[in-house]
Design brief:
Helix content is about 80%, strand content about 0%. It is built from eight helices and no strands.
Length: about 250
């Protein structure tokens, strides 16, 4: 299989975890505390992947200054877009309870939530494509982190959408579309940066990492803490350690 197609397939697999999470939420009434627990675990997994797979590699190949600039830039871009979308009803798009507005409560919120979900997923997919550029092999720890974190993201958000009265066509249209975009993003990320310099790849990796960390802090941890409360830190730590162990065992 060509590497560009390989990247696209892994992006689609990782994005498919969102659809899996949404399907579980739609078909099964998952306890709120269970959703929070899985969300906290997924947050820890992502933070670990950012630390050991993305930022560390970016700093090694592109230097500390360019990595820091890219990392902060990615966070600023994500936060600015998130603030704009919040004004149209997408602030609580990953919340599983009654925080998400219905279309009648906030006209246009359906589109804003869909765009926000896309905003959350694209940086992760680009990172998957970029990981193939480092030695020609997909980073197992990155794939595991994105997949493990995407299941609770899709689960929590879809549960909130269902409670807000969104239709099954809307819910699975959103997550199915994002799964496809995830595959395309990983593929395009690989193709467009195939001949890029290590410094350029490092900066783009850092930008994606900054956006992912901002997403974890803004959308995943609040949902986890609201229900898991004092256990959130412990569960997140277990997720972090699990991803770290996968990364070390994959070496």
């Amino acid at each position: 299989m060509p590497d560009w197609l390989h990247a696209g397939v892994w992006g689609l697999v990782a994005g498919g975890a969102l659809v899996l999470g949404a399907a579980i939420a739609w078909l099964v009434k998952v306890p709120v505390r269970a959703i929070a627990t899985i969300m906290a675990f997924g947050a820890g997994v992502l933070i670990s992947a950012l630390s050991f797979e993305l930022i560390d590699e970016a700093a090694r190949s592109g230097g500390l200054l360019s990595t820091a600039i890219g990392f902060l830039g990615g966070a600023c871009i994500y936060v600015a877009a998130n603030v704009a979308l919040a004004r149209y009803g997408a602030r609580h798009r990953k919340r599983s309870q009654d925080q998400q507005p219905g279309e009648g409560d906030s006209p246009g919120s359906g589109a804003a939530i869909a765009i926000g979900a896309l905003l959350d997923g694209v940086p992760e997919s680009v990172v998957l494509g970029l990981s193939l550029l480092h030695g020609g092999e997909i980073g197992l720890a990155v794939v595991a982190a994105v997949f493990i974190s995407n299941v609770p993201e899709g689960l929590s958000s879809a549960a909130g959408m269902k409670r807000a009265g969104r239709s099954v066509w809307y819910v699975f249209g959103v997550w199915g579309g994002i799964a496809l975009v995830s595959g395309v993003s990983a593929l395009v990320g690989y193709l467009t940066l195939q001949s890029a310099s290590p410094a350029t790849i490092a900066v783009i990796t850092a930008i994606a990492a900054g956006a992912i960390l901002a997403m974890v802090a803004d959308t995943m941890i609040p949902e986890a803490f609201e229900r898991a409360h004092m256990f959130t830190g412990l569960i997140t730590t277990i997720g972090f350690l699990s991803a770290f162990a996968i990364e070390r065992l994959a070496e």
